[in-house]
Design a protein that fits this description.
Distance between the termini of chain A: 73 Å
Largest sheet of chain B: 5 strands, parallel
Largest sheet of chain A: 5 strands, antiparallel
Helix content of chain A: 55-70%
Oligomer: heterodimer
Radius of gyration of chain A: 53 Å
Distance between the termini of chain B: 41 Å
Helix content of chain B: 40-55%
Structural class of chain B: alpha/beta
Number of strands of chain A: 12
Largest interface: A-B, 29 and 32 residues
Number of strands of chain B: 12
Strand order of the largest sheet of chain A: 2-1-5-4-3
Shape of chain B: elongated
Strand content of chain A: 5-15%
Number of helices of chain A: 10
Number of helices of chain B: 8
Radius of gyration of chain B: 18 Å
Shape of chain A: rod-shaped
Chain lengths: 477, 226
């Protein structure tokens, strides 16, 4: 866009300069042209008037003889004038002789005016030479005399002038182009600076500012831009502070809840062992207390886990992890009925096994909660760059418009369902991001939800060396 | 079973319910509500095991543990609200044998207590001396020397070293070590093993960053090499 504006600005400046140069050049040319021609006509007319009114009548009789005409012509020739003397029908006399035959080619208007007794002129090319022809009748009624003046020097002068003006215009246009480019760059420099600043802001660097270098409109505008950026920075800073406060509050609350929850968990564990000893009327309530304390415990623990993510104090401890083995272990511990589909080859990637276990456990917990009793499949696929672990159920799925939100905190696809905290998938997503991977959810053909964990195969090891040590491992417990 | 347990915990509800649970399991429980009182009780009467909350008024659990360790090798289990690696490290450095993460269920705590007591009461089943490189290990005397110089190890560190040396050349997974050294027959926190191994290396290796006696086998576990 800026390049477009620069081009337009350059073009406009050059066009203005060229237009101005053209008007001035053409104007001055026309002025010089008319002045030179006018001067030539004036000189020629004065000379013709004198010769026709004084000289010619004194030399020519009423019906001039050939001798008189020749004498007059030779006088003119001595003074450097070329003449055509029309002394009667079919008797034009020319000096020099090369002008013979020119008379009939003179413009009719000129000849008519001359015949009518006026002094008249015309610009006529004669034998290829630009010439000024001035004519009149000797003494006003005598023979018509035409003076032919070679005006090629005048024409040559004008030609040179045209050439000079044209060359000047070209030089001017080139200079204007160069100057305009510099000018445009200078004018647009603040715009480019602003574009760079806006780009930095777009990337999240709200400290970007535009240098205010002038008092003109650009300066004012840069100042406005900077104030906008400062206001944005301020607003976002306040939002972040508010969010931090909110998160600290959640962290503090869950931390404070921890001690009473610890007491409740210990108490419930004893109560659970003695539910049978409770009177019938209190037994169900006792069972519910035990269950609800378990729920409360996991809610508080999940909140604390999320608070640790928010505090960004989490570290990833990577090591080579045998995914086949890890998946089998987690499924055995968390969802024995799930069907596990693993590739024949051992898949080993560098990752944090505890986080991966947590993600898988939460995905399985989600499947257990939302698709109770339905078939759950855990599938591992791997290529050179990515491994994909899919946990797919045959439950009710999630409406497509809510699919994008299932990894949000406290989101419940079915709020009427009792049980989960709505934090399990949010926690899974946080762990997945720490591992450099991501979670995706989609509805399956034929019903049910599939959640895919995609992890990068960075620093992957070939199964070989670790495979051997696993085989040699003593299992005699 | 008539083992005597000292329970130091500041929260009255947790203290009471834990004492009830342990009492019902056949232990004789004495309670204290802060670190100073805990140390007084410990010095006043003989005990077989100490359960120690980390966050205690007046004197924190780590400090209480350090003071106990000056005079006793009694098993000490820390009760910790957080299970960050830092807490585990500090606890083990203070001389604790194990930690139990809060919240805990009473049966789980009892299982851990029994495992620790079993371990402490285990009689040495061999009287000979073992060696690993420059290390000399007196199994009956539970002492270790390096080039003839005494290396003071905690009970856990000694048991860990003994287990690795007895199976030298073999890789022992973290789970196996948790099972055999800490006596857990369920999936425990294997960071405990990692931290204990680091502590052990700091005492027995010439350069703990480049271990020569107890090696890490990536993705598998640990092994001792002669």
């Amino acid at each position: 866009m800026i390049r477009g504006v620069r081009a337009r600005l350059t073009t406009t400046i050059v066009a203005l300069v060229v237009l101005t140069a053209a008007v001035l050049g053409i104007g001055s040319y026309l002025f010089v042209d008319s002045r030179l021609h006018g001067q030539a006509v004036e000189d020629a007319s004065a000379q013709a008037r004198f010769d026709l009114s004084i000289l010619a009548p004194s030399r020519l009789s009423a019906s001039p003889t050939k001798e008189e005409v020749e004498q007059l012509a030779s006088d003119f020739t001595v003074r450097g004038l070329q003449t055509i003397i029309d002394a009667g029908p079919d008797r034009p006399f020319t000096s020099p002789g090369s002008l013979a035959g020119v008379l009939p080619t003179l413009p009719a208007g000129l000849r008519d005016s001359v015949d009518a007794g006026q002094i008249a002129y015309a610009w006529v090319p004669i034998q290829g030479t630009p010439s000024l022809v001035v004519g009149g009748r000797s003494g006003g009624s005598g023979p018509a005399i035409y003076f032919v003046r070679d005006e090629s020097p005048l024409q040559a002068t004008l030609d040179q002038l045209r050439l000079a003006l044209g060359a000047g215009a070209v030089v001017l246009a080139i200079l204007a182009l160069i100057a305009a480019r510099f000018l445009a760059r200078g004018v647009l420099a603040p715009v480019e600076a602003a574009a760079r600043a806006a780009e930095r802001i777009e990337r999240g660097d709200l400290s970007a500012r535009v240098p205010v270098t002038s008092d003109d409109e650009f300066g004012t505008w840069a100042d406005r831009f900077n104030r906008m950026a400062a206001a944005l920075d301020d607003t976002i800073g306040r939002l972040e502070a508010a969010q931090d406060q909110n998160r600290r509050f959640v962290a503090d609350v869950s931390h404070e809840l921890r001690t009473p929850v610890s007491a409740l968990v210990a108490e419930a564990s004893i109560l659970r062992d003695h539910l049978d000893a409770l009177p019938q009327a209190a037994r169900r309530a006792g069972e519910l207390v035990v269950d609800d304390i378990a729920r409360l415990r996991s809610l508080v623990e999940e909140l604390m886990e999320l608070s640790r993510f928010d505090a960004e104090s989490e570290e990833v401890q990577g090591e080579p992890v045998d995914l086949n083995r890890l998946i089998r272990d987690v499924v055995a511990a968390r969802y024995r009925d799930a069907v596990v589909e693993l590739p024949d080859d051992r898949v080993v990637i560098e990752t944090d096994p505890r986080r991966l276990q947590r993600i898988l456990a939460n995905l399985l917990g989600n499947a257990r909660e939302h698709a109770p009793g339905a078939l759950v499949v855990v599938r591992l696929r791997a290529n050179a760059d990515w491994v994909t672990i899919t946990v797919a159920d045959r439950g009710p799925g999630v409406p497509p418009d809510r699919l994008g939100r299932i990894f949000d905190r406290f989101f419940m696809a079915d709020p009427s369902r009792r049980g989960g905290s709505g934090l399990g998938l949010a926690i899974a997503r946080e762990h997945a991001e720490l591992l450099g991977g991501r979670l995706r959810a989609r509805n399956r053909d034929g019903g049910g939800l599939a959640i895919e964990l995609v992890l990068p195969v960075t620093g992957s090891l070939h199964g070989g060396d670790t495979a051997e040590t696993h085989e040699d491992e003593p299992e005699d417990r | 079973m008539d083992a005597r347990i000292l329970l130091v915990e500041d929260d009255p509800s947790i203290r009471e319910v834990t004492a009830i649970g342990l009492g019902a399991a056949g232990f004789a429980v004495t309670t204290a509500s802060d670190g100073v009182e805990g140390l007084e009780r410990f010095r006043a009467d003989p005990f077989d095991l100490v359960l120690l909350d980390v966050m205690l008024p007046r004197l924190d659990g780590y400090e209480v543990c350090r003071q106990i360790r000056r005079t006793s090798t009694i098993p000490v289990l820390m009760l910790t609200a957080r299970a960050d690696t830092m807490d585990v490290v500090v606890g083990l450095e203070a001389g604790a044998d194990d930690y139990v993460r809060k919240p805990f269920e009473v049966p789980e705590l009892i299982a851990r207590v029994r495992a620790a007591l079993r371990r402490a009461g285990r009689l040495p089943d061999e009287t000979d001396r073992l060696a690993l490189g420059p290390l000399g290990i007196d199994v009956a005397g539970r002492s270790v020397t390096r080039d003839g110089v005494d290396v003071p190890l905690t009970r856990t560190e000694f048991d860990l070293l003994l287990e690795l040396v007895r199976h030298h050349g073999q890789v022992l997974t973290r789970d196996v070590l948790l099972d055999r050294v800490w006596g857990y027959d369920y999936l425990g926190d294997s960071r405990l093993v990692d931290v204990a191994i680091q502590r052990l290396r700091a005492k027995i290796e010439t350069d703990p960053a480049e271990p020569e006696l107890v090696l890490t086998v990536r993705g598998a576990g640990y092994k001792a090499v002669r």
